[in-house]
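Changelog-adjacent note: as of this version, every example in the card shows the full chain rather than a window. The one below runs 255 residues end to end.
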Amino acid sequence: QKTEPATAAETENADEAGDSLLDMILDSGITGVAFMGILGLFSVVAGTVAVERAVNMRREQLMPIACVEELEKVAHGSAPRYSALADSCDNTPAPLAVIVQSGLARQGQPFAEVEKSMEDAASREMADLRARIRPLNTVGSIAPLVGLLGTVVGMIIAFHTASQSGLGKAELLAKGIYMALLTTAGGLSVAIPSLLLGSFFSGRVERYFRDMDKLLIPLVPHLVKRTQPAQEPPQPPKSTPTSTNPLMSNAIRAS
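Full-length structure tokens:
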């Protein structure tokens, strides 16, 4: 006879200990479910953006292999093969290809025009990539505020309950505090990974554009030299960028 009550109590304790996250959210009441639903939506948005960027922001998609190979030949001292370079950059929206095409479109123009055209293209491409990452930073900024709002609402509910029912009903008071802590934890759980992923992808964008910079700088003088008469030895332009003045430094700083 003594065994049955003990078994029932153990079963009840086991059920309470085995509450899932969903059970905890449902136990927080309608208000808690609403706040956690908003945070859940934020997490879906952040996860979708992170997966999409991981798939579509790989090195070979931003810097086509064929285009990189042609630029590496120029960097190692070979004369650029303009037709091969143009073919390797055709029909692709990759940032490196777009920047090269902008330079080839100004081929034979003064150095300042070639450089300006490529810098503008680099700025546009970098701005576009950063815009696709911005939802991660937005979620990372808003999610803690939603969690904080849930905390405030939960505490209001808790103290309102205490004022109406007295401190004798501890379970009613605890429910509001429970919701407050749950939404705080939910907001931080969504915000922290979102901010980390946003920082990671932003760093990847900057790293790839610096790699593009190293490939593109040797190409610019070749595009300009073709404007000089054939009988004169080619002279490098006075404002040829150096490692201390990279072609896309303005684009990177502006970002």
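Structural remarks: Residues 30-150+186-227+237-254 form one domain.
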